[in-house]
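Before the break, one more example. Copy the sequence into your notebook; we will annotate it together after we see the structure.
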Amino acid sequence: MRCNRKAKIVATLGPASSSPEMIRKLAIAGADVFRLNFSHGTHEDHKARFDIIRGLEKELGHPICILQDLQGPKIRVGTIKGGAVKLEIGKTVRFQLGAEPGDASRVPMPHPEVVKNIMPGHTVMIDDGKLRLTCTGCGDDYFDARVVVGGMLSDRKGVNLPDTDLPISPLTEKDRRDLAFGLSLGVDWVALSFVQRASDVIEAQGLVKGRAAIMAKIEKPAALDRIEDIVPLVDGVMVARGDLGVEIPPEDVPGRQKELIRICRQAAKPVIVATQMLESMIKVPTPTRAEASDVATAIYDSADAVMLSAESASGDYPVEAVAMMDRIITQTEGHKLYRSIIEAIEPTPEHSTAHAIAAAAADVADAIGAAAIVAYTGSGTTSMRAARKRPQVPILSLSSSPAVARRLVLLWGTHSIPTDEIHTYDDMVESAKQHALSSGIAKPGERIVIIAGIPFATIGTTNNIRVVRI
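Here is what the structure looks like once it is written out:
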């Protein structure tokens, strides 16, 4: 089964999409990557979905990528007397350590790290920003805040602190258990929630130990401020617009999205745009025109992938949501302005042999009308460098590592195939021709452009380009 579009679709699995029949329908409709959201469900739930995906992979005969999304630390208020209370604009509320139920004047805040680090003037946002307060003073076990935007506050609502840099790990004890479980299953990517600094990624690297690719979810202003330190350390990035859109002004999100995609493309790292892309399709079978435009914008921005969350996990129309996203991407990539926009935002490649070879492959393929670029890769880097150029032709990525082949399913324009290890130059050429034919990407008489590193199986040595006729 070959996909003609370049950008990929990530579909979240959940109660609406857990059966073998439904997961198969999502894959047929266009889902390339399946997301297991560890904020919900049990280990048994996720294992059942994982096993279904791997069985489907064998049936369809091509790699399917699995992304484990860790919950991360959640800051929440405690319980409220009666379950809810109204916070009035202009009133001062004390947020205090402890578990005693709160009221309109005192709200339990069971997070010492918040009380210790918040400062006067910092913003406190509750329930996805529906309530907004400003810190006015601090004590040893409390801080006071004035209500700027009031409303009803109920038990255990989430808290966002966009101005407060919290010295907490993105990996809670629950995340560590979930991570160990996901790695034991064999997930391909691990997404870290609420990354704030480079040290957060280094901590995760010590636990993952190369068994999966690491993706940083960018949803904190602190991460935006340190993005140049974070991107070189991770394998990919998710623009997690849910919490990010709460913690920064909504009008800043589109520009930040473009910045993050450009930084990742410059670094040859895949990037996912996520959250609320087709949200109305949770309940209705068609999206709004604004949602269709939002997906198209991410494609024009040159994102590697776009993601469905509740639309496919718990919505009423999961298959229709995937199919709609597939149609939007296909139509956008076929628009007469698409190539000019993509090429206008092309980043300058690094001054190295490997990057020059990958960029040249795209130029040569376009110039001679080649059917495809065939990239031999041990770690995935060669394919990522080729994808950064956003060539007009498909990238056939061949790797002797099934794990690497699965990870590269996420990559823009890439058709990933696990293959036998290559030992000679002649083997390389012959294998490339055979896979290009058998995959349907090339026909007899057409030419392909092959890029590889010699000596073979040596990571980071992309240094060879070859044009051959099938």
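The first helix runs from residue 20 to 29. The CA atoms of residues 189 and 213 lie 5 Å apart. Try to locate both features in your own notes.
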